[in-house]
Amino acid sequence: MTSANPLPPSPITPTVDFDRDGVQHGFLRLPYSRDESAWGSVMIPVAVIRNGNGPTALLTGGNHGDEYEGPIALSDLARTLDPKDVNGTVIIVPAMNYPAFRAGTRTSPVDKGNMNRSFPGRPDGTVTQKIADYFTRELLPRADVVLDFHSGGKTLDFLPFAAAHVLPDKAQEARGFDAVRAFSAPWSMRMLEIDAVGMYDTTVEELGKTFVTTELGGGGTARAETIRIAKRGVRNFLRHTGILSGDVDLHETRWIDMPSADCFSFAEDAGLIETMADLGDPVAAGQVIARIYPMGRTGTAPAEIKAGHSGILAARHFPGLVNPGDCVSVIAVTE
Ligand SMILES: [Zn+2]
């Protein structure tokens, strides 16, 4: 990156050495002076498992602080990955937006920063922007392959899928879809991002890296099934790239995509939501998939949410009450 005014260095100091062989558990230390701690820091956990000069995988969860399959699977991996099974380097950050993760919220309680809208970040910006900048300028240049776990968080619930993006560079796109296949979630998504500005995904892909993301459930929790999918998926991802020894444990998957904005439905009313289709159910364009009851009185007809596209229900609003503008449902098209 060239600029007339080069960016200052990142304020983050790692307590680990990314070039040292073996297992290290440490922190990315970000100075954050505040009322409770005058010379305090945000301590973002990081693990490095390295064995020689092979390729590097960067594995992240907690990009949004209320999504749990990633942090669980990555905490397990960081504790159990044996360097003798590794050829190269595995960098694990289970909770990327650590302040948000500690608060159990999607965005950071420090600055309201949404990590996945904060890239490429700024070394002189907010806490969230400083973390993003560290990934952009320090961690991503080390990585060959990148896996970022997401789930629906407190407000959405998803069919469990791994995803890669449709990209202008078709060789890079194919590497992404091959890695999604290896991850072996029950569903695999070809994603066309409608609003990609500020996303980690976009920064990773612009740097030419092979990138896989996921949506593995939601509701502000993690289920045994989705945790199993995450644990198997991350090891499969590492085996596929040759960083972890052993064969990919390939499971059946069904490919889906979201071809247009018609796939998304948004509430226009506040109220009590009646879900009329479950995740994975087939739906036809025009079918009523949810109703929203006004809460203040009886005898008023509910507003109807109709499917804008035929396919299957891939995501739905999770809490029982909705507000205008909330995403109520997402439909995916099966191949
Ligand atoms: Zn997320």
TrEMBL record:
Domain Succinylglutamate desuccinylase/Aspartoacylase catalytic, first and last residues per copy: 53-240
What keywords is this UniProt entry annotated with? Hydrolase, Metal-binding, Zinc
Top-rank taxon: Bacteria
Q: SUPFAM superfamilies of this UniProt entry?
A: Zn-dependent exopeptidases
The protein's required cofactors: Zn(2+)
Gene Ontology molecular function, alphabetical: hydrolase activity, acting on carbon-nitrogen (but not peptide) bonds, in linear amides; hydrolase activity, acting on ester bonds; metal ion binding
Does the keyword Electron transport feature in the UniProt annotation? Answer: no
Q: Which InterPro entries match?
A: AstE_AspA_cat, DoeB, N-alpha-Ac-DABA-like, N-alpha-Ac-DABA_deacetylase
Q: Which Gene3D superfamilies match?
A: Zn peptidases (3.40.630.10)
Output the NCBIfam families linked to this UniProt entry: ectoine_eutE
Q: What's this protein's name?
A: N-alpha-acetyl diaminobutyric acid deacetylase DoeB
Query: Which organism is the protein's source?
Result: Phyllobacterium myrsinacearum
